[in-house]
Amino acid sequence: MARITFEHIDKIYDNGFQAVFDFNLEIAHGEFVVFVGPSGCGKSTMMRIVAGLEDATRGDISFDGARVNGKSPKARDVAMVFQSYALYPHLDAYGNMAFALTLDGCDEDYIERRVAETADILGMRPYLKRKPRELSGGQCQRVAVGRAIIRRPKVFLMDEPLSNLDAKQRVTMRSEIIEIHRKTGATTVYVTHDQVEAMTMADRIVVMRDGRIRQVGTPRELYFRPADKFVAGFIGDPPMNFIPCAAAKGGVILKGSDGVLKLPARFAGALAKREGGEITLGFRPEAARFGGGQKAGGGVAFEARAQVLELFGDSVSIFAEIGGHSVILKTDPDHMPEENETVKFTVPADGIYLFESGQNEASIEA
């Protein structure tokens, strides 16, 4: 295990493009940290800098307090799993897992013992004599993981390792990777564009956009206390609803309407400071409450026109319109409306979010 420290990391390529801006972070011993963000946000670049495959233009990266800038991947004692399995097609699963230990000159008894231990962790013992073409995608990914962890590296790096698997395999492999992490205890940095992977796997999530960190926190912190509109919209499936409005005394005026939508009293001070100014109101699809009128505790009442319905068996997503603004509502099938029906619902007081408008889009604290 290793503690990883990033201090003021910048990455600028020879063509002048800056991929990472002032990246600062500390990853604890044995922590599972996920870098997440849209394509081109800099997350894979940071992974390659950790691995030693690329050098930072400015700033320092340290393992356990020792600066590793300029050191090779082998000298850093890291292991990587890539998006492609990158298995040797002429070797069986045993040979692929054993490859790194063979290169290190380990004796056969030690290699056999380590492969057996790793195969047991991965549930691959029955498949060790099969070559990659004889394995499923999920099994190939397990072999790739086994090849990485067999050396017991200080740092385990995973760059979108599940993107080539089908939906069912991804769900299975997510839980298996978490279990592998618990058994090995290796400090793990995992890169993905899939926020569901980030939410279900991470101890902490680093949300990136345009080469900058937007927020770092636990999945729960990012979900319930997003720092800005981007994080609020990126984390959560379906994403948070956003409605442009103007601040008013005691509430907001939705664009396209005249009446004031009353908001919880906790926002009174923030709204008074911004009265007449543009802000954004947000709430998550699953926060919508149907069939019971306005809830106690200052819930906010809405009316929407249902447009498209998606039934998932245990839930239904309602694509609706509020004053010309598209929203998604999530509820159980008992409250499934008809298309074009006007539906009434409330959002509990703690399910309402406000964000600044403009370039900043920071969360407005109540």
Describe this structure in words.
The chain has 366 residues and is α+β, with helices and mostly antiparallel strands. The protein folds into 2 domains: 4-233, P-loop containing nucleotide triphosphate hydrolases (Rossmann fold); 240-356, Nucleic acid-binding proteins (OB fold (Dihydrolipoamide Acetyltransferase, E2P), Beta Barrel), CATH 2.40.50. The protein has 10 helices and 20 strands. It has a 6-stranded mixed β-sheet, with helices on both faces. A 5-stranded antiparallel β-sheet has the order 13-12-11-14-20. α3 (93-103) runs parallel beside α5 (137-149). The radius of gyration is 25 Å and the shape is globular.
Give a quick summary of the entry.
The chain is an alpha+beta fold and 366 residues long.
Helix and strand layout, with pairings?
Elements: E1 4-12, E2 18-27, E3 32-36, H1 43-51, E4 58-63, E5 66-67, H2 73-76, E6 78-81, H3 93-103, H4 108-122, H5 137-149, E7 155-159, H6 167-184, E8 187-192, H7 195-201, E9 204-209, E10 212-217, H8 219-224, H9 229-234, E11 241-248, E12 251-254, E13 261-262, H10 268-273, E14 278-283, E15 289-290, E16 300-311, E17 316-322, E18 325-331, E19 342-347, E20 353-356
Parallel strand pairs: 3-8, 3-9, 6-7, 7-8
Antiparallel strand pairs: 1-2, 1-4, 4-5, 9-10, 11-12, 11-14, 12-13, 14-20, 15-19, 16-17, 16-19, 17-18
Give the CATH superfamily of the largest domain: P-loop containing nucleotide triphosphate hydrolases
What value does the Rg take, in angstroms? 25 Å
**CATH fold type of the largest domain:** Rossmann fold
- Across the major sheet, the strand order is 6-7-8-3-9-10
Q: How many domains make up the coordinates?
A: 2
Secondary-structure content class: alpha+beta
Q: Can you summarize the main beta sheet?
A: 6 strands, mixed
